[in-house]
Amino acid sequence: MLAPPRLVIDYEILSKYCTECTAAVRDLLGDSPDFAIWYEGHKSECQINLTGSSSSMEMEAAAILWQRSIKECNMCYTCILSDGDSKTFQHLMSLNIYGKGKPIKKEVCINHISKRLGTGLRSKVKECRSKGVCIDGKKVGSLKETTIVKLTNFYRKAIKDNCNDVEKMKSAIYATLYHCSSTDAKPKHSKCPNGKFSWCFFKRALANEESPESHSVMKTKLTEEVVAKILPVYQRLASNEILSRCTSGKSQNANESLHSVIWSHCPKESFQSKKRLEISVVTAVSEFNFGSLFTLKHVHQNTSLPSMQISWNHQKSRPLTVGEVVKVENSLKNRTLWSLARVIQFISGKDGHVRVARVKTETGELVRPVQGLNNLELQEPEIDLPKDLTDSVIRTRRRRKVISPKRLTNA
Ligand SMILES: [Zn+2]
Ligand SMILES: [Zn+2]
After folding, report:
1. pLDDT tens for each residue of 124-169
2. How far apart are CA 105 and CA 76, in angstroms?
3. Which ligand is nearest to the CA of 30?
4. H or E stretch covering 395
5. What is the pLDDT of residues 57-89, one digit of tens each?
6. How far is the CA of 117 from the centre of ligand 2 (A)?
């Protein structure tokens, strides 16, 4: 949900899948008492928070956000900007969360609506072709793919430039259509804007009191036959009902940009657990609202993720020492193939800080930056398992028995 200064103010993550539940159902059989006992313990950390269908996800999330807005912030959302389908909007209307007198406005993303014009025109081409009429040939004035793209852009611009007035929007949309079908014999520029700065060359010439150029200079042309065929598409998409939803001229570009930040943190192609998604959404929202630099600083100062604390502390607490065995980082190789080396000397700079070290490898000596030398976790205190624990039966979290391998000895 985005507010005017383009800030993310709330979000909700819904998941239909839980890795542990799936494994438990497989191993313990879903309806067995064993599963019921296991589930009792698991319930608090289960990742499933949506049981309906995937298509209901957006509706459920919107309902949660709407309910929360009153309860937690005492604020109301006044409008919803979405793509064409209005399921979510209708769901919110039926729930009537804010009560009477506080209606929600539905707005449509102008990118989506102009895409619908493109789709409409393309299906018209197909429809005509099935009837044996070709309107997309190579002839001048036919409805080629490039023409469709141009008309779509004209339509979008007409909405964007006149977004506070439905009637103006409508006449600007028809102006683009009629302008394109004008010829020297039949100029149709009555709806085109007047003035010296008009986009229409015909009206511009009239304003400058010159005689207009020939219509052959026009780049986008449509024959009368094509206009007659596509007029119904325009009539449908320039109706008051549709245009009244575009009056703010907003697009979902900000949403899309947030999404791309989220999915750059966790690739969409592979399955992501809810926890990972949560981390990436939180980081993305922070980057979106405050910028990446702030986020990075903030994360390192106030990190609450245990794994981050460990790696951060680990690096700080263990400076390298001379004589230590290290792994030499090599970006060309997999981490497991990095070569081992022994630190033989630290080289300090003019300011006294050590940034590079001389190391001895199998084949010779190297000078490498200190941050490229990874100490092996050999000096960590080893954990002694109590004897009796190792002897008794060990079970995994999913209650599988762990059988230690039998050693083959001579005895
Ligand atoms: Zn679960
Ligand atoms: Zn014109």
Report:
1. 999 988 988 888 777 888 888 888 999 999 999 999 888 888 899 9
2. 12
3. 1
4. strand 394-395
5. 888 888 999 988 888 888 888 888 887 677 888
6. 21
CA 49 / ligand 1 centre spacing (Å): 9
Enclosing H/E stretch for 311: helix 306-317
R_g over Cα of the chain: 33
DSSP string, 7-45: -B-------S--HHHHHHHHHHTTTSHHHHHHHHHHGGG
Please tell me the distance from the alpha carbon of residue 222 to that of residue 183, in angstroms, as a whole number.
Answer: 9
Tell me which H or E stretch contains 280: helix 274-290
**Distance from residue 177's CA to the centre of ligand 2 (Å):** 9
Q: Are the C-beta atoms of residues 107 and 250 closer than 8 Å to each other?
A: yes
Q: Where are the alpha helices (DSSP H) in 43-191?
A: 57-73, 87-95, 110-130, 145-161, 166-180
Ion ligand 2: residues, CB < 5 A:
179, 189, 192, 200, 202
Distance 137 CA to ligand 2 centre (A): 24
Distance 187 CA to ligand 2 centre (A): 8
Using the 8-state DSSP alphabet, how is residue 2 labeled? B
Q: How far is the CA of 200 from the centre of ligand 2 (A)?
A: 4
CA angle, residues 345, 352, 316, in degrees to nearest 5 = 75
Distance 205 CA to ligand 2 centre (A): 11
Q: Ligand 2 centroid vs 144 CA: distance in angstroms?
A: 21
Burial group, residue 343, by CB count within 10 angstroms (0-12, 13-18, 19+): buried
Is the separation of the CB atoms in 63 and 95 below 8 Å? yes
User: Residue 23 Cα, ligand 1 centroid: separation in angstroms?
Assistant: 9
Distance in Å, CA 62 to ligand 2 centroid: 44
